[in-house]
Design brief:
Elements lengths: L1 E8 L3 H12 L4 E5 L6 H5 L5 E2 L8 E2 H12 L5 E4 L3 E6 L5 E5 L4 E9 L5 E4 L29 E5 L3 H10 L5 E5 L9 H12 L4 E3 L2 E7 L6 E6 L2 E6 L2 E4 L3 E4 L10 E2 L2 E3 L13 E3 L4 E2 L7 H19 L10 H4 L8 H12 L1
Parallel strand pairs: 1-2, 1-8, 2-5, 8-20, 10-11, 10-16, 11-12, 19-21
Antiparallel strand pairs: 3-4, 6-7, 7-8, 9-17, 13-14, 14-15, 18-19
Helix pairs in contact: 1-3, 1-6, 4-5
Length: about 350
């Protein structure tokens, strides 16, 4: 039996940042994740994808962000059960929990934080009859390594942020980039839409709208795509077809734990601490839902911070806690006296 203060189900960016916030409060964490390495979707699906809305980083690669988070929490020595799925959760008489995995691991914790992102997921695939025979032979549902498209002709289909961002990014990698979307309007960020339009004007992106890819052909791998536009069809030659239509999320075992579920997400109390309907179980990041919810990494970080404050207060009833800024107290001395920390800062300046 692994003993810890908080068991975190999901080792994506939100789960990793929760380790940091818990560590500041001297609480230990153990993380469980179905993937073989930390990072969640950022590591598994698009490690090279640039992210533009992390404070202090005009642009940061998804993999780089995970590396930085791992470095940030290393000092707090979290433990991991990777390549394991949390399957059961049992509340004990004293209010603690035992979480079990599909590999028989048992974790005893005083609180549970569900940070499972979208849960288990699979890509939404276009309705093309023979698409399965070309998967990994020219059809790619994720961009894990942009270098595989170096000097190749690629066709991206989709109208959301992923399709727009990768079209922009791969302009400097691929020999030719074509973006196909079934509407003239896009669902992604306006800034990204403007960049794609500008790249089209510069002749760096072929933009085909409103249109859909309806057929794939080639001997052993993708060689041509059939595109339907306004009732007419035509073929274009390409080396890769990358349909980016998003993911179909599934909660998996989480759906069987007695939690209140709404639209495939876990309902939480966002007015206080992101606790679920079961006291002691919290949900943070993309897996939760509440009025006004935004599925952004930044919001997950905020939720993790408030959750850890709440757990600390529950585990230390009556213990006076004064929030201190790490810029004053540092990390190692976060729970020391503010006066001593300020003296250290003054001494360092002198």
């Amino acid at each position: 039996m692994i003993e810890t203060d908080i068991v975190i189900i999901g080792a994506g960016p939100t789960g990793l940042f929760a380790v940091f916030e818990a560590g500041l409060l001297k609480m230990r964490c153990h993380l469980i994740d179905a993937l073989p390495q930390p990072g969640g979707q950022l590591t598994e699906l698009y490690p090279k994808k640039p992210i533009f809305d992390i404070p202090g980083y005009p642009s940061v690669g998804a993999g780089e962000l995970i590396d930085n988070l791992m470095e940030q929490i290393k000092q707090f020595e979290p433990t991991f059960s990777l390549n394991e799925v949390a399957t059961t959760i049992d509340k004990q008489e004293d209010g603690s929990f035992v979480v079990g995995t599909n590999r028989g691991t048992q974790v005893h914790a005083k609180a549970v934080a569900i940070a499972g992102g979208l849960g288990s997921f699979e890509p939404r695939k276009p309705l093309i009859e023979n698409i399965a025979q070309y998967e990994e032979n020219g059809v790619e549902y994720f961009v894990r390594n942009p270098e595989m498209f170096r000097d190749k002709r690629i066709v991206i289909a989709g109208g959301g942020d992923s399709a727009l961002d990768w079209s922009i990014f791969l302009v400097d990698v691929a020999a030719e980039v074509t973006l196909v979307h079934r509407r003239n309007e896009f669902r992604g960020a306006l800034d990204s839409v403007d960049k794609v339009i500008e790249l089209k004007k510069q002749g760096k992106i072929n933009l085909i709208t409103p249109a859909e890819v309806v057929g794939i052909s080639g001997d052993e791998k993708v060689e041509r795509l059939t595109i339907e536009k306004e009732g007419e069809t035509f073929e274009i030659e390409t080396d890769f077809f990358i349909p980016l239509f998003g993911l179909t999320p599934k909660l998996g075992p989480i759906a069987e734990w007695g939690l209140e579920i709404e639209k495939n997400a876990v309902k939480v109390n966002n007015a206080l601490d992101y606790q679920t309907n079961i006291e002691g179980i919290y949900a943070i990041g993309d897996i939760n839902t509440y009025p006004g919810k935004l599925k952004l990494i930044l919001c997950g970080f905020h939720e993790a911070t408030l959750m850890c404050q709440s757990i600390y207060n529950k585990l230390n009833p009556g213990k006076k806690f004064v929030l201190k800024y790490t810029t004053v107290s540092g990390v190692d001395g976060f729970d020391g006296s503010r006066k001593e920390a300020e003296k250290a800062v003054v001494k360092a300046i002198d």
